[in-house]
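Weekly puzzle thread! Below is a chain. First person to post its structure in token form gets bragging rights.
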Amino acid sequence: MKINLGCGNVKFKGFVNVDIRKDVEPDIIDDVRSLTSFDSNSADLIYSCHVLEHFGRHEYKIVLKRWYDVLKPGGILKLSVPDLEKVFNLYCEKKYSLKQLTGFLYGGQNYKENFHYIGFDFFTLKSDLESLGFVEVKTWDWKSSEHSSYDDFSQAYLPHMDKKNGVLMSLNIQAKK
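Winning reply:
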């Protein structure tokens, strides 16, 4: 079983698409914090795109632990989160305005769950995943993923949609249980 957590309007064929919002019509309505609809050791793959940053700094590791529990031994967790290293670089070095970067820092803020509470870089997230028991933590390339034909935030670029010359603003990281 493959699970797409916090799917919103981007539902992958062949995945169980999960969201807390009924209006996006997911396959399963569930809170991705607790995943009460799923047994431990039941998923081969969990995909979460721009969801983890919506939890507080004292909560996100608890969420990651639950996702770890839902994965089967050898299962893969694929995450995509805003890459704060890229955000800071564009702000400090490339002189992008804060207005251009606000969504990556604070979320869309257009519905109750769409606020960011924490940010990540590769080394911080890798360390956190390893502390929970994940192994083989590395980045993944959206272009070679099985869902590359779906336009989601794992493909977020600045300038917007400039996938040839722009800067990929998402940290795409995977880990194995």
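Puzzle host: Confirmed. Bonus trivia for everyone else. The first helix runs from residue 60 to 70.
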